[in-house]
Amino acid sequence: RDKSHVHMNSTRWASLAGFVRYLGKTGKCTVEETERGWYVSYIERDPLLLARREAVERRAAAESL
User: Fold this and answer.
1) How many helices (H) and strands (E) are present in the chain, helices listed first?
2) How far is C-alpha 40 from the geometric centre of its chain's CA atoms?
3) What is the pTM of this model?
4) Facing residues of 49 across strands?
5) Distance between CA 15 and CA 21 in Å, rounded?
6) 45 alpha carbon, distance to own chain's centre
7) I want to staple 24 with a disulfide (CB 3.0 to 4.6 A). Which of 3, 17, 31, 49 is the partner?
C-alpha cells in the first residue's frame, strides 16, 4: 500500500481539472489544455537552486571571455 496516497475528496477541489486550473491561475505551473489532455509543467522557484544556476551561468560567461 502507498502510505502517501491522497484522494481528491480530501482537498478543496472537486476534480483534478479544478486543481490543475488552480495551479495555472496561481502561477505555480504552466498549464496547457489540448485535445489530447492537460500538459502541466512545474515552474522551479527554489532560491537555492536559482542561485546555483545563476552562479554556473556567470562562471560560464566569465570563462568564455
Assistant:
1) 2, 2
2) 7
3) 0.60
4) none
5) 10
6) 9
7) 31
